[in-house]
Amino acid sequence: MLMMLSKCKQPKEASQLYETMLFEGLKPTVKVLTALVRAYGQTGLFRHAFSTIEDMKSVVDCKPDVYTYSVLISCCAKFRRFDLIERILADMSYLGIGCNSVTYNSIIDGYGKAGMFEQMENSLTDMIENENCQPDVFTLNSLIGSYGNGGKIDKMEQWYDEFQLMGIKPDIKTFNMMIKSYGKAGMYDKMKTVMDFMEQRFFTP
């Protein structure tokens, strides 16, 4: 129930349900408290989200994990609270919790949508240098979408080629974003080329 309230962005109701659980003697879990963090974060209530994480640290068998922090990072990126992301990463480092692909993808996507391309590429570099996770098609789509929407077609094409060299294959979303970007830039020949390529690969734009 609390997970559902979290997804429905009902932080007040989620908090009340959690308090009821404690009153009835139910033991909190990482999953439950992470859902509460999500409920607060998705509505911009970051003070409550961080407070919940601090509470988790003091509960036996309920310490925040990489998923908890990734959820909060994703929420911060959505609200462009990049100052808080640095704080979260520092906290993770202190606790010995490494980033995973979801963490990096959330940061990269957030920077990209905010037009902070240098920070986006720096985060990608950190991801590539991390032995425990590597870029994937979600990373590719973040860069393609960000540069395409920003009208930086050369950079979009450059990173498309780079990801091909890394062995990361595009999906239908990748091609649709490229078509949209080329169309927006008035590059109709390239737009048609991508559409023809998709038809050859049995994709439908």
UniProtKB/TrEMBL annotation:
Q: Which GO terms describe its molecular function?
A: mRNA binding
Repeat (PPR) positions are 1-28, 65-99, 100-135, 136-170, 171-205
UniProt KW Protein biosynthesis keyword: no
UniProt entry keywords in alphabetical sequence? Repeat
Pfam families associated with the record:
PPR, PPR_2
Recorded hits in PANTHER family, A to Z, give: EXPRESSED PROTEIN, PENTATRICOPEPTIDE REPEAT-CONTAINING PROTEIN
Instruction: Describe the family membership recorded for this protein in Swiss-Prot or TrEMBL.
Output: Belongs to the PPR family. P subfamily.
- The name on file for this protein is Pentatricopeptide repeat-containing protein
